[in-house]
Specification:
Bound molecules: iron/sulfur cluster
Strand content: under 5%
Low-confidence stretches: 1-25
Largest sheet: none
Helix content: 55-70%
CATH superfamily of the largest domain: Helix-hairpin-Helix base-excision DNA repair enzymes (C-terminal)
Number of domains: 2
Distance between the termini: 40 Å
Radius of gyration: 23 Å
CATH topology of the largest domain: Endonuclease Iii, domain 2
Number of strands: 0
Mean pLDDT: 88
Order of helices and strands: HHHHHHHHHHHHH
CATH architecture of the largest domain: Orthogonal Bundle
Length: 249
């Protein structure tokens, strides 16, 4: 009898293992993450074929300004503000000459408007004085501009110049990198380094947009929609969040 029980126990353990998600160890080794991220990217590319920033822009400078305005603000809100802004200030030179208070009023609805206005005027002046009125196309030069950190530089480089010098880490990339076990870091620069070690370079350009799309549509901050997630079998957080849906039909 004891032997029968032991065999039954063994069988049930085997069944449980077979039903467990493909990713059982948080994050996994570097090789495991490199392999898993390739699969994740392949699936997300099919799911979100239109990879691009949601910000509207016509020139690298407009994208630079729009990205600065998008800090702590939605892309939709920024897209409502920028048409009138660029009609009023059509060139880098005109923004370099803008009055701080007036510009603050023009961009007030995007939040943190004092800081943003100060940075936009200062970077426009620097572009006019040091860069012949052109936005530079390298990470090294972009991060020298006032208010421009790696995230903003990466977005401008990937979208406006199609250059991959890194991976933009915003709130979605940060959240999904943690949930998908791709990085255990909190600091965006360290998360970016972790991602650059596992994401194939050919995918750096689009990686941010893929995670942003998935973060907005499915892996939302408050309640990720795990049951309908196309990468749930590759996600170590699937089990953690599945409790949210217990009893749901
Ligand atoms: S399974 Fe859930 S937590 Fe994991 S990526 Fe999908 S939605 Fe996000």
């Amino acid at each position: 009898m004891a032997k029968v029980k032991a065999v039954a126990k063994k069988k049930s353990a085997k069944t449980k293992t077979a039903q467990a998600p493909a990713v059982s160890i948080r994050g996994g080794s570097l090789e495991e993450r490199q392999q898993r991220i390739r699969e994740i990217i392949k699936i997300l590319r099919k799911e979100y074929p239109q990879v691009r920033t949601a910000l509207n822009y016509r020139t690298p400078f407009e994208l630079l300004v729009a990205t600065i305005l998008a800090a702590q603000c939605t892309d939709e809100r920024v897209n409502k503000v920028t048409p009138a802004l660029f009609q009023k200030y059509p060139t880098i030179e005109s923004l370099a000459r803008a009055r701080q208070e007036e510009l603050e009023n023009d961009i007030r609805s995007t939040g943190f408007f004092r800081n943003k206005a100060r940075n936009i005027i200062a970077l426009s002046k620097k572009l006019v004085e040091d860069y012949q009125g052109k936005v530079p196309d390298s990470m090294e030069e972009l991060i020298k501009l006032p208010g421009v950190a790696r995230k903003t530089a990466n977005i401008v480089l990937s979208s406006a110049f199609r250059k991959a010098e890194g991976i933009a880490v915003d709130t979605h990339v940060r959240r999904l990198s943690e949930r998908l076990g791709l990085s255990r870091q909190n600091d965006p620069d360290k998360i970016e380094r972790d991602l650059m070690a596992i994401v194939p370079r050919a995918d750096w350009l689009d990686f941010n947009y893929l995670l942003v799309d998935h973060g907005r549509k499915v892996c939302q901050a408050r309640k990720p929609l795990c049951p309908q997630c196309v990468i749930q079998h590759l996600c170590p957080s699937f089990e953690k969040f599945s409790g949210l849906y217990a009893g749901r039909k």
